[in-house]
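Good morning C.,

I know you're traveling, so I'll keep this short. The sequence:
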Amino acid sequence: MSELSVNHLLGIKYLKEDDIHLIFQTADHFKEVINRSIKKVPTLRDITIANLFFENSTRTRLSFELAEKRLSADVVNFSAASSSVKKGETLIDTVNNILSMKVDMVVMRHPNPGAGVFLAKHINASIINAGDGAHEHPTQALLDCYSIRERLGKVHGKKVLIVGDILHSRVALSNIFALQKLGAKVKVSGPKTLIPKYIDKLGVEVETDFRKGLDWCDVANMLRVQNERMDISYFPTTREYTQQFGLNMELLKSLKQEIVVMHPGPINRGVEITTEVADSGQAIILDQVENGVAIRMAVLYLLASKIQQDED
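The tokens, ready to paste straight into the viewer:
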């Protein structure tokens, strides 16, 4: 397979397994590039990419910007927090204004689920979903699975425990889709109030006993508690959450086998995981950050190839 089966990256659920393998192979190549002394390639020199962030994001936005610049694309950054969206301009108006600047690709984060799908139907540019509400965050799931493949050799057959705020997490949903497509086994663990009611429909088991889940898994993906998405209290206190679902060194060392620890960031140190765990050899958190740039370069490159083909 030499090209993606999709024209946009709206969510993992729209990808085939072959698409994911192609993205990984392409990322392998770009990982070599970003470890050279000259980290830039002229691949997307004629492509203009608009980064539209209707929600605050530091890590994802910087990772995309870096990926775009490494590929020599022209980049337009748009932060809706300080824009005319506050004055009541609609999503379509904003995008049409940006497209009138002849933009080829749009990387968008938006608080509403499905915003990327809506956009893809209305404008003639390739859309990459950088997170839509509590729905999907496809590039995060791709970089997480890629990081597992890098550390453990493959994703197929591996047991992955996703821990924490599953209810509000687009990272959890995208990870479940990606891991299952690649043949991993997935369980989730967290306070009952933070596990969505529909989770069993996704073929995912709930493990209420965090310790049991850790003994079962090869990889623990520790999610952040998303206080900013909570309008009510889902558990009594942060201290109680940490006692039940926090990962510290003592717990990690007491497990039957050595597991890999992941975190999509930003970390609430001392809540989901302690600083000692985050900085330990079992954690691949910094690898995830580096792999994020390579994965985003791969996605941008593969989608841009389709645009260039259409123009030829």
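Safe travels,
E.
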